Amino acid sequence: MARILAIDYGTKRTGLAVTDPLQITPGALDTVPTHQLLNYLADYLVREEVETIVLGKPTQMDATPSATWQAIQALAKKLQHLYPHIRLEYVDERFTSVLAQHTIREAGIGKQRRQRDKGLVDRVSATIILQSYLESLSMLH
Hints:
With 141 residues, the protein is an alpha/beta fold. It has helices at residues 37-47, 69-82, 96-106, 111-116, 120-140; strands at residues 3-8, 13-19, 26-33, 50-57, 87-92. It has a 5-stranded mixed beta sheet with strand order 3-2-1-4-5, with helices on both faces.
């Protein structure tokens, strides 16, 4: 089987998470500067087989699209053009940053490390997006 990759897109940094090849366990992959995302993905997709890319869909509390939605749609269009064989899916990411920060604190990661590792929340958010997607798949079966 091929992996599933999740993207938590941000204007400065983008968090990435990926499943194992059996699509059972999600895990944080990396945080990359957003302007380097397409190059990073090109390199990664040469080395690893990915069948689905899950993009976080940012929405406001009233369910309207957030400010980054247009940038995510532009990214999706590029990904569809570059990788037509990879399916694109979306997951509501409304609370992922809050959940990620809570998860990080619950894990006992200290304030200094949280401040030093700016990408930690992005990676954990991407993992939560991926976990949500996997859970939605299990509900279908």
